Inverse folding.
């Protein structure tokens, strides 16, 4: 009697674009931003901060850490400065707000949804996350946030919302800066 034959089922491979090229998860990035935010508050990065304080009329940033799989930035946000609508291409992202408040406008597939992120709040950005970030108007404190990306941020695509309420990609740029324009 012939032994039963187990059919060979070819494995189904998932598109590479579905998973980011990093072993880190959003939770790891959230933890990293928390850790480095603590470091900023404890003064461990005082040597990187601008002499005379953060500029009031322009965005300022510095890289707190970089390695092959992660980069971490501190950003000081100027009132009224927006990043323009963008994604982080092949990088996951996360942030922790240190002081002040941010507004994030995220594209949900049909609309831009606003949320406010206050000091201590965190947010994670999976692949395909399209958003614009700005200091919340009338934030009483300077707005500082720590951002992490994995793999390190190398490119961003910018978008516009069309009159038909769809998203149109208008350009992709290589970058060595965090969080957009
Ligand atoms: Fe962003």
């Amino acid at each position: 009697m012939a032994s039963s034959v187990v059919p060979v089922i070819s494995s189904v491979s998932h598109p590479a674009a579905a998973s980011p090229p990093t072993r880190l998860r959003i939770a790891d990035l959230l933890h990293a931003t928390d850790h480095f935010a603590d470091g900023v508050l404890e003064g461990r990065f005082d040597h990187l901060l601008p002499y005379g304080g953060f500029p009031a009329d322009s965005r300022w940033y510095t890289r707190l850490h970089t390695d092959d799989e992660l980069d971490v930035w501190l950003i000081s946000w100027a009132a009224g400065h927006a990043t323009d609508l963008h994604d982080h291409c092949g990088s996951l992202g996360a942030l922790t707000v240190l002081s002040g408040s941010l507004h994030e406008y995220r594209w949900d597939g049909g609309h831009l949804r606003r949320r406010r992120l206050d000091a201590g709040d965190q947010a994670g950005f999976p692949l395909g996350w399209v958003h614009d970030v700005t200091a919340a108007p009338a934030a009483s404190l300077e707005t500082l946030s720590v951002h992490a990306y994995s793999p390190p941020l190398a490119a961003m695509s910018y978008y516009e919302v069309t009159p038909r309420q769809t998203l149109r990609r208008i350009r992709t740029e290589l970058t060595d800066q965090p969080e957009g324009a």
Summary: The longest strand covers residues 92-99. The radius of gyration is 20 Å.
